[in-house]
Amino acid sequence: MQFDISPQPVVALIAGIAILFAPKLLNYIVAIYLIIFGILGLLRI
Asked: Distance between CA 8 and CA 23 in Å, rounded?
């Protein structure tokens, strides 16, 4: 049995948990998330 796990839901879950414990990190987490997936999106084209 093999699972094909997309990185986006995993990152979203980790970011959500981090925001629950440290709400001040919200801006940094959102910025990093957008930058990473923006770069990944450009590289896949």
From this structure: 20
pTM: 0.53
Q: What is the pLDDT of residues 4-21, one digit of tens each?
A: 667 777 777 787 787 788
* Three-state helix/strand/coil letters over 19-38: HHHCHHHHHHHHHHHHHHHH
pLDDT tier at 45, thresholds 50, 70, 90: low
Decide: 19 and 29 in contact? Cβ < 8 Å: yes
What is the C-alpha to C-alpha distance for residues 3 and 17, in angstroms, rounded to an integer? 23
Reported as half-sphere exposure (CB side, CA atoms, 13 A), residue 36 has a value of 11
